[in-house]
Amino acid sequence: MKVLRFIAFLLLVFYSNAMFSKDYEFLWGVDANTVFDNREGDQTYSPQQTIFFSRLSPSIGVKFLDEHRLVAGTHYIQPIGIGYKENKFIPTAYYTFSHKVVKEVKRDSSVLRIDGTNTPDFKVWSVSFGMIPRRLSYRLPEILWSDSMDYYNPNIRGILLQCTKNNLVFHEISLDWRSLQSADQREAFNVNYNVRKYFHRYLRGISPFFIGGNAQLNHLAKRNPAPEGEGVNDDMFAYPYIGWDFSDETVFDRFRIKAGYAVSFDRCRAIGDWEVDGGLLADFTLQWKKIGVKETFYAGDRQFPLYPMYGSLLNMGDPHYQSSAYSKTSIYSPIVENSCVSFGASLDFHVTKEGTSCYQKVYLNVNLGNVDN
Questions:
Q1: Domain 2-369's class?
Q2: Terminal Cα-to-Cα distance of the chain (whole angstroms)
Q3: Which of 63, 126, 249, 337 is most enclosed, with most CB atoms within 10 A?
C-alpha cells in the first residue's frame, strides 16, 4: 500500500503541473466487470462450480509529451456470496511509450497505390512496462488462456509490445512473469507472440482472407532450494492459421471462419524427453443482430500432458483440450454493446469423448474514461 501511495503522490504532482502546461493531459478510467458463470455436467476435465464475482478497476494517470503515459490503479475483486474477507486487491502501475510513423510518398495525388488507395503508409507501435491491465492486449485463444484464468489474473506482469501497420498487420509480444523463485514458490513466466495480417483487394477494400498465428514459450522452474525430484518444466506452443472474415460481405454482423494446426512441445526435465502433440484447431462464428453462434473444434493428440501434475501452474489453457476430440458450442447474445457498456449472456456446451458439460454465463462490463484510448 505504501508503494501505491507513493505512485499516487507522483501522479498528483504530474496532474498539478498538467493544469499549467499544455504538454500534460490528465488520464482517468474505471473498468467494472460482473460475471456469473455456472458450470454443470461432466467433471473429467473441469469441476462443477459457480463463479460469481465483481471486479472494479479504477485508474488515474498522466500523458506527457504526446507519446508517454504513466498510469496507476488497482483491481478490486470481490467474490459474491462468501464474505468480504475473500476479496483481493491487485495493483496496476505501468509506463507506456507509443509512436506513430507516417511514410509520406511524393507522387501525384491522382495516382493510386497498388492496393487501390492514395493514402500514405503508417505504422503505430507501443511498449508498456509494469503491471499492465490485460484488457489492453489481444485476447489469446482458449487453448492458451482459459476464462477461469482471465477472471482472477487481470494483469500482464512484465512487458507488452504492440505494432500495427496500415491497420492490416498486427504484431504483439508479451512477457508475463507470473511468479518469482523462492523457497515457497516456483519461478514461472510465459512469452506470447500474436500476429495477424489482412490483405487489400485492388479498388475493393480489404479482402476477407487473413493469415496469422499464436506462439508461446512457457517456463516453470524449481523452487530454491528445490525438494528432491522436482524438475524444471518447459512448454512451447505454435498455432499458425488461415481464415476468412465475411462480416462486411454479407447481411450478418459477424461471419468468420478460422482453422489451423496447433502443436505443443512439453517436457519435464526430471522425467525425460520432449512430448510433441498436435491437432486441427478451428472455429466458426456467425452472428445476426442480437443472436450468435460460435463453434470451436479440436481433433488430434491430447494436449497438456503435464496438466495432471501441475495444473494451471504450467498450462493456463482450457483443460478440456486434454481430450483428443473437443467441441465447444456457444450460443450467445450481446444484449447491449456500445463504446461504454457490454452486457450479454451465453450458453456453452463442452463435448469431449469422456462427457458433456453446460456452462451458463451472464456478464456485464462498463468502461469509462480516457485511460485506455
A1: mainly beta
A2: 27
A3: 63
For residues 278 and 299, what is the distance between their CA atoms, to the nearest angstrom? 9
CA distances from 172 to 140, 161, 240, 284 (A): 11, 6, 15, 23
Which residues, in sequence order, are bridge partners of residue 35?
53, 363
Coil, strand or helix at 85: helix
Residue 65 has pLDDT above 70, yes or no: yes
Q: Which triple of cell numbers denotes residue 12?
A: 498528483
Residue 110 banded pLDDT, cuts 50, 70, 90: very low
Q: What is the pLDDT of residues 321-346, one digit of tens each?
A: 999 999 999 999 999 999 999 999 99
**Nine-digit cell string for 213:** 498465428
State CA 364 to chain mean position distance. Answer: 18
User: Which of the pair, 3 or 181, is modelled with greater confidence?
Assistant: 181
Please, which residues have CB within 8 angstroms of residue 173's CB and are 6 or more apart in sequence? Answer: 159, 160, 161, 191, 192, 193
Instruction: Tell me the one-letter amino acid at 364.
Output: L
Which grid coordinates are listed for 20? 499549467
Is the predicted pLDDT of residue 35 greater than 70, yes or no? yes
User: What does each C-alpha distance from 9 to 16, 17, 119 come to in angstroms?
Assistant: 11, 13, 44
Shortest CA distance to 340 belongs to which of 365, 319, 315?
A: 365
- Domain segments of the chain: what residues? 2-369
What number of H helices and E strands is found in the chain? 3, 16
The answer on pLDDT for 109 being more than 50 is: no
DSSP secondary structure, 212-241, as one string? EEEEEEEEE---SSPPTT---EEEEEEEEE
Asked if residue 118 has pLDDT above 70, the reply is no
Q: What secondary structure letter does DSSP report for 362? A: E
* Residue bearing cell 482459459: 146
* Distance between CA atoms of residues 121 and 119, nearest Å: 7
Q: How far apart are CA 327 and CA 3, in angstroms?
A: 46
Cβ proximity of 341 and 332 under 8 Å: no
- Are 345 and 25 in contact, with CB atoms under 8 Å apart? no
Length of the chain: 373
- Integer CA distances (angstroms), 115 to 41, 164, 196, 243, in order: 51, 17, 18, 20
